[in-house]
Write a structure and sequence with these properties.
α2 packs antiparallel against α3, α3 runs antiparallel to α4 and α7 runs antiparallel to α8. The protein has a 3-stranded mixed beta sheet, with helices on both faces. It is about 60% helix and about 5% strand. The chain is globular. The chain has about 350 residues and is mainly α. The chain has 16 helices and 3 strands.
């Protein structure tokens, strides 16, 4: 979510202004776009302006898809320019709300960690992990930073490994282990005159950088496009040639689930579903100067919706409603037999 390009290479203030203008044109995507704008303002050093954007979102009369995320980002930003008391109060509010989305937990825990509040960071990471991952067979991609962050903080506290740390080690794919990456004594090797120690540290840093690049290369999920029944009827009535892609609504839903399971089985992480509407699709087609009847436009539309923050993580959490909006739980609907 946060831009990592140095301010000297990008005019972050201008990019924030562009995103604000875009949010005015696409109000349905305003939340995701304004969060990106606020991140650019933070990188540019204009943290008060970023707080203003967060407050603007929180006061929105239409409500937010993820208010806890906005509050977490606001708290992290406030603490960076000496509004510690307000930041702490917001962090406690986020923890008390116990959101089911891992992102707010990661942000507030890392904010505590960045200000040397290691015990509080550990408590926050642990609270989130126990809430979101207890009795979960396969931790969703979005929860991995919780496990990795908790592992890192526990290494700094000198705490012995537990079952959650073992799970983090299992999920970690870098050739350098988490114990090495999170070793609190690593900083001393940077001042060493021993070439072997320095070379070992360079190897660890390269592995860590590779992990960060991998995460940044997947800023939004690999998303499958979902049409509700009424929208699909309208789409096919307007563009009959797309019936080859969608022979029936039931077949469409079955294809979505099968495709996601196949991607998951192949090792693709960070999967999601985006829901389309005909007006939005037609507007996208117009922006691409392409006919909506062109089937090659459909995956591009799905990717664009995911980039705008419209994706819902797949698979749903245990006990959550199915993504198809049937009203049943996922386990009793498309998740049956998963």
């Amino acid at each position: 979510m946060r831009p990592d390009t140095p301010a000297e290479n990008v005019d972050h203030a201008a990019e924030a202004a562009r995103l604000e203008r875009t949010a005015a044109l696409y109000p349905e995507d305003a939340e995701a776009l304004l969060l990106q704008a606020a991140a650019h303002l933070e990188v540019s050093g204009d943290r008060p302006a970023a707080t203003t954007l967060y407050d603007r979102l929180l006061s929105s009369p239409d409500g937010l898809d993820n208010p806890h995320l906005v509050r977490a980002l606001k708290a992290s930003n406030l603490w960076e320019y000496d509004h510690e008391a307000e930041a702490r109060a917001i962090i406690e509010g986020v923890r008390a709300a116990a959101p089911r989305d891992p992102a707010p937990w990661v942000i507030v825990a890392e904010s505590l960690e960045a200000h040397d509040e290691l015990e509080a960071a550990h408590e926050t990471f642990t609270q989130a992990v126990e809430l979101l991952l207890t009795d979960v067979e396969e931790p969703p991609y979005a929860t991995h930073p919780l496990l990795f962050g908790r592992h890192r903080v526990r290494r700094m506290l000198g705490t012995a490994h537990d079952a959650w740390d073992t799970l983090a080690d299992t999920l970690h794919s870098s050739p350098v282990s988490l114990d090495e990456l999170h070793d609190p004594n690593r900083v001393w090797s940077l001042g060493s005159e021993n070439p072997a120690e320095l070379q070992a540290e360079i190897t660890r840093l390269r592995a860590e950088l590779g992990a960060y690049r991998q995460a940044l290369s997947r800023p939004f999920p690999v998303a499958i496009l979902h049409w509700p029944a009424a929208e699909l009827d309208e789409l096919l009535a307007s563009y009959p040639s797309l019936s080859a892609e969608y022979p029936s609504h039931a077949a469409h839903l079955a294809t979505i689930e099968a495709s996601l399971r196949e991607l998951s089985a192949s090792g693709t992480p960070n999967l999601g579903i985006v829901t389309g509407t005909v007006p939005s699709y037609e507007a996208f087609a117009a922006s691409e100067a392409t006919s909506p009847s062109d089937p090659t436009l459909l995956p591009q539309y799905a990717t664009t919706l995911a980039a705008r923050g419209r994706a819902v993580t797949w698979p749903p959490e245990r006990g959550a409603q199915c993504w198809c909006a049937s009203g049943k739980t996922y386990g009793a609907c498309h998740g049956a037999g998963a």
